[in-house]
What does this fold into?
Amino acid sequence: MIDFHTHTPAWHTGTWLGGAAFGAEEFLTYMDSAGIDVAVVLAHDGLFNATPESNDELAAFVRADPSRMAGFGTVNPRHVNAVDETKRCFAELGLAGLKLHPWLQGFSLHEAALDPICEVVVEAGGILLSHDGTPPYSTPAQIAALARRHPRLPVVLGHGGLHDCWREALAVTCETENLYLCLCGTPPYAARHILAHAPRGKVLFGTDAGLSDEASQDYAVARVAEIDGWGITAEQRADMLIRNPGALLAGRLG
It folds into this structure.
């Protein structure tokens, strides 16, 4: 099983989300307890304060087992060093992708500053994952517009539209060849509908692990167990948890 949406702890920012401090070995223990073989691990502190140091700490975290953890760094496209820091994430830190959070980082996906950043990710063979599902800056259609500007870039909707925008997320995923949809916080009734109607190869799954007050990430373990009640086919389950994310991550793990 591949979990396409997890986080390191918030070591420094003290976000309203709280969360326990934990190390890489504890996180690998959580993965084992949930039956997760591979996890995409996203910056946490960097979403609130996009610094090179946050990417350094993420890279050190996933370096504990690069065969099981793929790190996605982050930049704020309005920062003057954003393009150079994106290059460093791949060339020096060996990260597999880039995570953007327009809602927290306060930028529009239509800004031209994103284009050179996306081209760096393309040239590095990376993946772009963006938070979605919280207007005004993180709607699926806005992310799809960015994906269409960069057709060689794999772009992932990090939350499958959440509760409010999942229908929009499905529609733009059907219409945009290089756009993928991660069911992470998407309600079960919406997940069933998306899996029944999305193009094959496009749907992923994520727990949002890393935000818990317990290092064991009990809520994320419960999200994995919840899949059993979705009423989906064995083929849909295998596509979502194994085949689709495996194809997307091919060649991007250490």
About this structure: The chain has a mean pLDDT of 95. Residues 234-249 form the longest helix (16 residues). The CA atoms of residues 39 and 69 lie 5 Å apart. Residues 2-249 form a domain with the TIM Barrel fold (CATH 3.20.20.140).
